[in-house]
What we know:
The complex is a heterodimer.
Chain A: H1 2-24, E1 32-33, E2 36-37, H2 40-67, E3 69-74, E4 77-82, H3 86-92, H4 95-128, H5 133-139, H6 148-158, H7 165-172, H8 187-212, H9 216-224, H10 229-257, H11 261-266, H12 278-288, H13 292-326
Antiparallel strand pairs in A: 1-2, 3-4
Helix pairs in contact in A: 2-13, 3-13, 4-5, 4-8, 4-10, 8-10, 9-10, 12-13
Chain B: H1 2-35, H2 40-43, H3 55-60, H4 67-98, H5 103-118, H6 125-134, H7 141-165, H8 169-177, H9 182-193, H10 195-211, H11 214-218, H12 228-237, H13 243-263, H14 265-272
Helix pairs in contact in B: 4-7, 4-10, 4-12, 5-7, 7-10, 8-9, 10-14, 12-13
Amino acid sequence: MSDTERSRSGNRATTGVNQGTAVTGSKRKQFKVLGRPLGFEHWALLPLLLFFLAFVIIPVFELVRLGFSTVTLSQGGLVREFNGLSNFYAMLEDKIFWVSLLNTMVFVAAAVILQLILGTLFALLVERARFLSGLARNVIVWPAIVTPVAVGATWWLLLNIEFGLFNYVLDALGLPQQTWLASTTWALPTLIVVDVWHWTPVVFLFVLAGLANIDHTLYEAARIDGASEWRVFRNVTLPLLAPTLVVAAITRIILGFKVFDEIFLLTGGGPGNSTEVISTYIQEVFVQQSEFGYGAFLSLTLITILIGLFAIYVLSNFLIGKVRHEG
Amino acid sequence: MKASSNLKANTILLELSLLVVIVLTLVPIVWLVVTSFKYTRDIISLSNWFTFTLYNYQSLFSGNSAFIRLFLNSLGLVCFTTILCVTLGAFAAYSLSKFRWPRAFTLAVLGVALFIQLVPPVALVPSYYIIMNDFFLYDSVTALVLVNTVLNLPFAVFLLKVYFDSIPDELKEAALVDGCKDFGVFRRVMVPLAAPGIAAVTILVAILTWNEFLMALSLTATPNGQTITVGIARFVQEYSVRYGDMTAAATIATIPLIVLAIFAHRYIVTGLTGGAVKE
């Protein structure tokens, strides 16, 4: 709200200036866009608009066209044949698609919850520690920028059944060795662990910033009142941290649905379809099976689901705000 | 007395837990780097001792290896994408932030940007494949530059708009009164003031482009257009995994990023949190 107000008042302030440039730019006065002569602001935005047109608007139209067609390759060219809803019926009967959708949901939910818990814990530790705080602030961020494919390769080594570090440690502790990614039961949980290692840093950064914004006198007041550390966290820190955690969760959920690299590398969706997620499945349908039309329809379904989820989030936010406002 | 010893125990416990966190974060990275200096026979043996060697790196950069080409492709991709993305993003963000656009128009542009950020890139792979084929760009670095630019533009625009929004409009007016043209105001006043934002965008776009895998995998077929990430994946996927090459290539991809993480920490923090944290 305050943001739009600010930009509106900013606009009012710049109106006079725009009229000024209209006079100096009188040579090109005949071109008018949205009732104004073509000025710096138009040229500045034009490349972005062209990029969006060429690589977002047109691709989405192309996707819709493909999604309702049967596409065949003939003599190097694509032949699209409109087939109504038959891709939709194919999707309804496609067990792998629904399994991959379920796997994605389980993967995202479990990974994001664990990242929120661990990210918060790490941030609390870093905030209180003295000696290792500076080092930890830097090092904990590293996994988030390491090349995802390299993360895949690394965990591929760590989880190797014969010579991986994990089985080596289990063996040294006298525990039975595990098959990790080769097991239909444990492959998905193992990938969740990899994702938690990879992306907890982002939640950590959000929470660290959130903690820095909390007024420390609130803690002292609570402690003077005799509250235990847990009560202080539960009743002071957590409620004040809630908005930060929501933002971190949304960021992670959106990125979670995009997961591809590590899973492609570590399991390729297997064993069976136990780790097939939506991204690996669409890529497989499209690139390996060359089912352009069906792949496009699955893409459209995915886009619809995500926009739906986002709309629910925005709407619920709006409604909660309204209830609070009235209450 | 008892309270103070309790406090001491707490402090030690705290530092120890943090030490565990640091070690757990580092173990996979260190394991990768150490493995890249082993011969394959040492990698697959269970012995604790190994012979240090640069053999894997020599083999990666030997004359008949395609890796050099992939490495140069990745460098070119990162340079061109970053320049294109930051330039277009800065101009667009400034235009949206400091000029009067109809509200619906601004919302439409930001809506498209939000759409790109929301949708998994895999959903656009079919269209991009066809477009790149139509324009004879399939299997080229150019195609990857264009696609990476558009995928990173929303982030650049959103982050830089936050920075431009926080600069008072009065500065722009003062510069105009002093005789600066619009472009001069942008270049001499606004860009320097938004420099931390531009640095954060530059660094994060460079990292994300360097790391990009899905598009490079889907829109290329030969070393003409492939990047280092595709190269690493191919070492894993071949019938006999080439552990040495794989770990050396993954190390080469990772080390520059760690160096950035150490020296450009605050910009990375700003970038990773999408501007929510400005240090």
